[in-house]
């Protein structure tokens, strides 16, 4: 007796209906964060001094800002419009 393949078809249908986790805005923010990290390491390398202003203050702030930007980009979501109808009724 042949088995029915209803489970695999329902899984395929579920996979098609899923939305993307990140939007284009998220990817742009992630790219900006990675760019800030790369620029921070490049600035640190270009000065090549232990006691320099750029390698002690500017580069670490750029790197930290880049990592914080990536965290923000991962957590950011588009605001929903469900609350706007309740506000307009008031």
Q: What are the salient characteristics of this protein?
A:
74% helix; 0% strand; single chain; mainly alpha; 90 residues
Portion in strands: under 5%
How far the N terminus sits from the C terminus, by CA atoms, comes to 63 Å
Report the uncertain regions. Answer: none
- Tally of helical segments: 4
Shape: elongated
The major sheet is characterized as: none
Average pLDDT confidence is: 81
Over the alpha carbons, how many angstroms does the gyration radius reach?
23 Å
State the order of secondary-structure elements, H for helix, E for strand: HHHH
Q: Helix- and strand-based class?
A: mainly alpha
- What is the percent of helical residues? over 70%
Tell me the total number of β-strands: 0
Describe what you observe in this structure.
With 90 residues, the chain is mainly α. The chain contains four helices and no strands. α2 (24-47) packs antiparallel against α3 (53-75).
Topology:
Layout: H1 6-17, H2 24-47, H3 53-75, H4 82-89
Helix pairs in contact: 2-3
Structure described in brief:
This protein is mainly α and 90 residues long. It contains 4 helices and no strands.
């Amino acid at each position: 007796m042949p088995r029915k393949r209803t489970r695999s078809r329902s899984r395929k249908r579920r996979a098609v209906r899923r939305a993307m986790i990140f939007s284009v805005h998220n990817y742009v923010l992630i790219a900006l964060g990675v760019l800030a990290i790369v620029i921070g390491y490049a600035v640190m390398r270009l000065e090549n001094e232990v006691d320099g202003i750029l390698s002690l203050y500017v580069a670490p702030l750029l790197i930290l800002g880049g990592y914080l930007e990536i965290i923000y980009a991962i957590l950011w979501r588009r605001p929903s419009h469900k609350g706007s109808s309740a506000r307009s009724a008031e």
